[in-house]
């Protein structure tokens, strides 16, 4: 397969002045007529006229009205063209109903919809399908669908047709078309300059009652972007459409966002608090792309983090503002460590701006998104808030309407702040998570912190240069008061010391506050000091971090030495959980133990071979011991955290319910499920219904409730995804593979629906001890299903291969089993380019 390189970028030799498209929709033989005005660029070095095109049947092609005979391959076509501006016309036929890859124009529940990012437009018609080619689009849709939508503003419609015009030049990846039997949930927003914008969420009939929350989230996002970034919406209309079959979460097509229905539809009865928070964040994310992604887009796909890192950073700021800043930060760091750290420390490691790829869909990764956002957070910390917003203002002023690079982005910061970002830029080009070793010294009132940074080799990058690392540090006195507030130390060398004078006694340092950089801190410290920070740190993130470190140390000692759970830690936990002055959401987070995968990762970092069954046993023992320790407090805590009154998915209520759910799961270990059975029966919202069901299923006491849940929700696809996932997530290690296998035979399992596939196999890969059970059955089951899915949907298959990325850290037997299954996938006949690239990288 062909490899594409960042260094080989060359501009397209033609401007595209306008694009007119006509769609004649039928499920199996849709005709797409294009009329595109090209103008040769005077200064172009390369005048090759190449149009991308895949899976298209070319019916006819014309230049300036004359038939031409282009040379076509399975990748696109070339043609002799005039040296003056000309009009290209083509008619192609495509098969939306047969498109199970869900890329280009496809059908989902009899509805037509598109997904063009990154390179799906080439499956719709011949076109220079690259983000630096921007043009205005006029679209005519012909068909008998009741609703027919495209980007921009409507310009006319009649019996069997509708026409749309998008005045903003855009790359083809932002093109969208939707047609089907849809109903709209309407809304309106007045921009700060007084422009009236019509808003709609389009859904299948019957889903109208799940749109209210999404609509509010959209309005809040529009207001927030005006207030915080000074950015206004720029069309008369903003449409969101919910689609059941979708490879990703959502897509920011100009004026016509398309969402995986799981990321927009919400109601108290069918969605958990976590779903609500995620939906609010994704609606914000896609809306924010209108400026960071659409008005300013990427020059090429290597620059993907230019739009994604920035937009994730912006949606995190939004969530922090709408809810709780520390809670959001802790949640994000948990996710970063669970998803990005394994990637950055394994065979799939790549920099936020990769320099090569075979299939760009394989680079919509935690590194590009989440680490991309962390890099922006560091930049903001280094230059300060005021300079950050000054630089952003310059970015929008200078680059509006352009397709940009990371160099453009950093130049804006250099120009706005006068800072040299040469060394900082390494964050974009070097892969791997830096390790920062900390040592300390105290003499004559002077405290010295010494940092040493190094980054292990990653594929293709054996040696790393030191990076700029903002270390947010505060100092506490031994009595718990803060003697130095947070200060950002700039670590730039491989080894560097910082001193603090005039201290009465040796302080306790609180290092990497707010998780100020995505690094792994290595520091010799005691559990007593961790417990001290858990009780006294003024930085909420580091308080949580201290508790998290204690939990890890305890569990690691249990796994390695068969130790009992650390009594001091259990006491500290009990004290915190019982302290009603503490934020319930925070208590819930402290009470959530590190995942088993996280313990495996920690063991691996320390040079041990993780044994998943032992890690599982330690987790069980720990939780059981904790439940017993809290035994007398649990009923009171359960009652105290029960939220009365009408359900509202706000930060306060959801924090309380999160703690309540944790308490219930502990209680269920002691009361035989009595309370959970009661809660299940009484619950009037999904959060509490789901928490009760999960607690019961985990205790293997939930058969009746699981059946009741199925009976109640079998017609709701999104709730059924929860049901599928929960069975696998809650099953004991020796039963996990069999449970998942049985679910693939269930009448409601549908391999073509990515949400359902991910429900089962995401949960399988996420059940650490079950997935890695010594029998190897789960590995084989996943491989069987990935091989089957690859023939239908390469993109989702390739992404799910990441379940294997940590394979090298396990023992010899498991490694052999894993290798055998991956080799089987690699050898499957007709393997897609997507999956081949992923499996090859992982196996390497
Ligand atoms: N550009 C999309 C998003 O991140 C990816 N499908 O929102
Ligand atoms: Zn995005």
Explain this structure:
The protein is α+β, with helices and mostly antiparallel strands and 844 residues long. Among the domains are: 1-93 and 110-178, tricorn interacting facor f3 domain (Immunoglobulin-like), CATH 2.60.40; 297-429, Neutral Protease, domain 2; 435-517, Immunoglobulin-like; 714-844, Alpha Horseshoe (Zincin-like fold), CATH 1.25.50.10. The strands form eight sheets. Strands 6-5-9-3-2-12-15-14 form an eight-stranded mixed β-sheet, with no helix packed on it. The protein has a five-stranded mixed β-sheet with strand order 17-18-19-21-20, with helices on one face. It is globular and about 85 Å long. The mean pLDDT is 98. The chain binds diaminopropanoic acid and zinc ion (ZN). Diaminopropanoic acid (DPP) binds at residues 117, 248, 250-252, 285-286, 308.
